[in-house]
């Protein structure tokens, strides 16, 4: 399958994502952000990094890149779109996913492995995973504090749009297991329609034993299935 | 007509130290629920084995049920007490937030003992007005409002001085029973004034102890630990 990986100025996980896609037997196609054609890709992945140096706000400038209009049209037609870390921030800033990613509650950049609990199975990212499954994935961000008003959060809960929450190794939510202050410990969400998904952890960095974690593989396999 | 001066207590946005609860939440075992609290100082669950309450870095309170049952969550925020009725159900997904929490009061006894009791719903909002001339009416209303969760934003109770003094005696009895010393309570108009030298933990426990016997929302004037002029 041909998968578009969008490269913004400041993206730094584009090649990691391409490597993971190849590892899983697919054909990554790097798409420069000034492109206005998606070149027939069947999936789009917005990778992590610091697009536009995170100026103004993480993802706030990248949403205006020329390719984002095409990404929006692709999603409107039901095309599957995945945003990882900065890609998640961009999708939120573009209004393709609900909420925003604010500065971490600690005001520090956080880089470590965390645990997340699958909240909703059978989504674009969680096919074959049972709710309650605990995954170990790496994070690396300064702005991962998922923020939304109470009514919006309640709506996400009702419609099963929360895909992942930060948790401890046992799957329990706690203050200590929440690395960035995200509301309701949210680590990843999907759009109302379900074809746009985003998460702060990096599944593409957790696809090989050599990298110390393999739980990301199931998520990418789900996205690519 | 109520004898003597009429004191109006408990208005919509006033801080709560009394029945009914400020809100209600239902959560299933295996699920969690979050309450947004920006200035939370402390939270306790009664009974403690019903659920755990943990402050999150997101300014939310995480409630994790431990067993099925009903209880209260006492939230201390900015010196005031807020109370949420918590119901933990055995299985399945519980309704979110306060959904399904509102249910009618049984006001039959209160109507017989109080001269004016009025409950109505206007454009989806519930209003509750009552006159409280004495202890019999106060006790009847207390029992009615204690029955089940109720988020009464539009609550107006008009107390006679005698009814307020009965209430004060009931609160004092609760403080004595809990061996909470050092906190003085009195009414200034319909405002409850707290005096004395107490630490914050004792003050919190005192508010929690008084809550179940206190009717209607009221203002609290906190004069504790304040030097005399």
In short:
The complex is a heterodimer of chains A (225) and B (229). In chain A, the strands form 2 sheets. A 9-stranded mixed β-sheet of chain A has the order 2-1-3-4-11-10-9-6-7, sandwiched between helices. Chain A has a two-stranded antiparallel ribbon with strand order 5-8.
Shape of chain A: globular
* SS class of chain A: alpha/beta
Q: Mean pLDDT of chain B, nearest integer? A: 81
Biggest interface: chains and residue counts? A-B, 19 and 13 residues
Q: For the largest beta sheet of chain A, what order do the strands appear in spatially? A: 2-1-3-4-11-10-9-6-7
Task: Kindly report the CATH topology of chain A.
Answer: Rossmann fold
The appropriate CATH architecture of chain A is: 3-Layer(aba) Sandwich
- As a whole number of angstroms, the C-alpha radius of gyration of chain B is 18 Å
Please identify the top-level CATH class of chain A.
Answer: Alpha Beta
Beta content of chain A comes to 25-35%
Cross-sheet strand order for the largest sheet of chain B: 1-11-10-9
State the share of residues found in helices of chain B, binned by percent. 10-25%
Q: What's the number of domains of chain B?
A: 2
Write the SSE topology.
The complex is a heterodimer of chains A (225) and B (229).
Chain A: E1 2-7, H1 14-23, E2 27-32, E3 43-46, H2 66-76, E4 81-84, H3 86-93, E5 100-102, E6 110-118, E7 134-141, E8 145-147, H4 150-158, E9 162-167, E10 186-190, E11 196-199, H5 216-224
Parallel strand pairs in A: 1-2, 1-3, 3-4, 4-11
Antiparallel strand pairs in A: 5-8, 6-7, 6-9, 9-10, 10-11
Chain B: E1 7-9, E2 23-28, E3 33-36, E4 40-46, E5 51-55, E6 60-65, E7 69-77, E8 80-89, H1 108-113, E9 117-122, E10 125-132, H2 135-146, E11 154-159, H3 161-177, E12 184-188, E13 191-195, H4 200-210, E14 220-222
